[in-house]
Structure formats: C-alpha cells, structure tokens
Design brief:
The protein is mainly alpha-helical. Helix 7 (178-191) packs parallel to helix 9 and helix 9 packs antiparallel against helix 10. The protein has 20 helices and 2 strands. Strands 1-2 form a two-stranded antiparallel ribbon. The two termini are 15 Å apart. 66% of the residues lie in helices and 1% in strands.
Length: 441
C-alpha cells in the first residue's frame, strides 16, 4: 500500500511566489512518496519608488500631447499594475521626451525597479549607477543606492552589495531607511554563509531600533531563517511566535508559513496545523494593505495643504502599493498552507479531516497549481478512509482533469486498491497488471 502524505516542493520568488513541483525520479514514473514542501524563500526588505510632484512645463503642450505630469502618472500607473515591461517603456519614453524634467531622476529610479523585477540586474545596475552619478543631489539617491545594493545581492556579487549597503550607512545616518541598509548587509552575510556575522548585526538592530516595528519584524524574520537553517527549531519557533502575533501584517505572512513549516519539519504536526491556519489569503492581505494606505493618503494630502515635506509618507504609500502589486501577481500562499494542513492530518493518521481540507482547497482554489496535488491527496485520503467508491470517482476525475500528470500511474494504483476493496477482483487484477507494466519504478 502506498504510504500516505502527498507532499510537494514549493519555492518563493524575490517578488512573486511560483510553485516548483516535483518531477519524477530519474525521469521515471512518479513516486507517490513526495518530499516535504519547503517554506517560501524570503528576501530582505526593499525600498519602493518614491513619487514627487513634477514641476510645471515651461510652455503649454501642443493639443493632444501629454504634460510631463500626465506622462509620468501614466508610467507610474503601469508600474503599480505590475506590468513591468510596459512601465519600463513608459518611463524610458518619459526620459526621452522630457529631458529637463525635475522628475527625471525618479523616472530613472523606476526604470531600475522595472529591470530588477524583470531580473535584468545588469541593466538595473547601469541605469541606477547613471542616475546616482548624474543627479548626486536628488532626494531619491539614497533609495537608489539601496536598490543598487539589492541588485548586486541578487547577482550574488556580495562584495559590491556590501560596499553599497555600507556606503548608505556612512552617508545617510539619519535616513529613515537606515535600518533596511543594515539588515540588507546582514542578508548578504547570510546568503554568503556567514551566519555568525549576520546574527551579530541582527542583535545590534534589535538594540538600536527597539521601537521600530518594521525593523524588528525584518530582523526577527532573518534570524528565524538562520536558526531554521541551523536546525535550531525550538529557538526559531520562539522567534516566529512573535511574528505570529502580527498575522494580519502582510509582511509577516511568509514568516508565519516558515514558522509552520519548521513545526512540520520537526514532525510536530499539531502545532504546524495551528500556524498554517494563520497564513492569510491573498484577498485578506490586499484588503489589509488598502486599509493601511487610506490614512496615509489622507495624511499626505494634509501635508500638501500645509506645504510640508511629503517624502516619507509618499514612500510609505509606494512601498505598500508595490507590496500589493507583488502579492496580487503571486500564487495565493493560503492555498499552499491549506495543502500542508491536509498533509499534516494524513501524517497524524486522520484521513477524514484531510479529506475535508482537500475538498475545500479544490473548491476554493480550482485554478491554483496545488489543485493537481490536492486531488491526488484526496484520492489517498479517501482510500485510507475506505471510502472506496468516492476514491474511485476522484481517480476518474483526476484522469480527465490531468491526463498528462506524472502521478497518473500512482493514481491508477490507488484506483486498483479501491476496486479491490469493493470486491471486484478481476477488474482490480487487470489494473494492477497495467500498473506493473507501465510503471518502471
């Protein structure tokens, strides 16, 4: 009998989640014993583009032509929508059409972000370096330096990344993004396998920025990652419990998943279920971000009327808008968490509960990449529950819905088991023979 507990491998992109599901062993038929899903790979916090009001053009535009402000706004709207290629072209066009605009540095900074999101790091580095060199006094330069460091970090050029993070720390000691530069350096050390040095920086951040909630969250998350890598699960869980208290914080969702997965790896399935349940859905995260943006926009308008500086508030709005765009473009992590909850129930020998979760997952997320694996897991759970008629029906559904699945032979084996259990031994025998003929494992 094939052991229960279908599992999948999942990976998180820097700015978007994408499932990397298991392939068959050595290009043979799939093994029903799947390896555990991994927690999403997290990245250090990133500073979002800051928008500034553009100066009025020196002369009225021709009829039908866009003003600099309108052209910039159109490009920015494309960026917010997550259409990086279109946004890149729009900002490039803005750069060419309005070479004397005061917003040109910000437009080039946006281009750097577009290239970064498209993983075209060399081009991002080129445009950001040029902007920093040509507009040394532009207010956006500190954020451009951070983005430059992130580009080198993603290229795994740790020497350059560290240099730019330290440049920021030395030049902008009063900048509100200083904690991000410090934690960014810690991330570089972590990615370069220098965990002890990374932990020292994290400790310093905790002491220096004890009242900065975002800095503490980012530092706690990184330390939890390090402790998990070191297999210090108890210490990691203690940290992730702090993050669990912020379950409605969009930035905490990946950390909650990581925390739940650390319980799973330690075979503490009961606690894993508890924390997987706290992972928020995409719709809940977006709604939460919207409630955070609204008062910030109100505050920015008040500052504008008072003639005060809106830079920091605008940057906060932009970070939230960028986060919303990233969340909207990625897979719903809640679906993966539900899948893992069903896995946990199977490990706990509770196939009835697993069946309920698998059915709910298939119904609520019919188009997610987890659907194929959820339906296969449902077949397993129904077979273990001896609900053989339902298991047989689920297998037929699986065959129709996923005719090219690498798990098709394994599903056929489970169907043979179900049919055998109903007493139709002749049909079951034929199916077992077919499985032995087609399966090379």
């Amino acid at each position: 009998m094939i052991r229960h507990g279908l599992r999948i491998l999942v990976a998180m992109l820097a700015l978007a989640f994408a499932g990397a599901f298991p392939s068959s062993a050595a290009e043979k038929k799939p093994d029903p014993k799947k390896t555990p899903a991994k927690a999403p790979a997290a990245n250090p916090p990133m500073v979002a583009p800051t928008k500034a009001a553009l100066p009025a053009p020196p002369a009225a535009p021709q009829s039908g032509a866009l003003t600099p402000q309108a052209a910039f706004d159109q490009a920015e709207d494309l960026y917010r929508s997550g259409d990086w290629p279109a946004a890149l072209k729009a900002f490039q066009d803005f750069d060419k059409k309005f070479p004397y605009s005061g917003a040109r540095p910000i437009g080039q900074y946006y281009q750097g972000w577009c290239y970064f999101n498209l993983k075209r790091y060399d081009e991002a580095i080129k445009i950001l370096n040029g902007m920093i060199t040509n507009y040394k006094e532009a207010p956006i330069v500190p954020e451009a330096i951070l983005k430059l460091a992130e580009c080198y970090r993603e290229k795994r050029d740790f020497k350059q990344a560290t240099q730019w993070y330290r440049t920021f720390q030395e030049k902008y000691k009063d900048n509100p993004f200083l904690p991000q530069a410090i934690i960014g350096e810690a991330w570089v050390l972590y990615k370069n396998d220098n965990r002890e040095a990374a932990k020292k920086i994290i400790t310093a951040v905790g002491q220096q920025y004890a009242n900065n909630a975002q800095a503490i969250l980012d530092a706690t998350f990184l330390l939890g990652q390090i402790l998990t890598d070191e297999k210090k699960f108890n210490e990691a869980r203690a940290l992730f419990r702090r993050i669990a208290e912020q379950s409605n914080n969009p930035s905490a969702t990946a950390a909650l998943y990581q925390m739940a997965d650390s319980f799973y790896e330690a075979k503490n399935y009961t606690d894993a279920i508890k924390y997987f349940k706290r992972v928020q859905s995409k719709s809940a995260l977006l709604a939460n971000i919207a409630t955070q943006i609204e008062p910030l926009i109100t505050r920015r308008n008040e500052l504008l009327r008072a003639g005060a500086d809106i830079g920091i508030v605008t940057s906060q709005i932009q970070q939230l808008q960028t986060l919303a765009s990233q969340i909207n473009k990625r897979e719903d992590l809640r679906a993966v968490a539900l899948f893992r909850i069903a896995n946990c129930y199977q490990e706990l020998r509770k196939p009835e509960q697993a069946t309920v979760v698998y059915r709910a997952l298939i119904e609520k997320y019919p188009t997610e990449k987890t659907t194929e694996y959820s339906l296969y897991g449902l077949i397993q759970a129904l077979t273990e529950s001896k609900r053989l008629t339902e298991a047989n029906a689920a297998t037929e559904q699986f065959k129709k819905q996923f005719p090219q699945s690498k798990m098709l032979d394994s599903a056929g084996f489970l169907q043979a088991v179900s049919i055998f259990g109903t007493g139709d031994y002749k049909d079951a025998l034929e199916r077992f023979r077919k499985f032995l003929t087609t399966c090379k494992d």
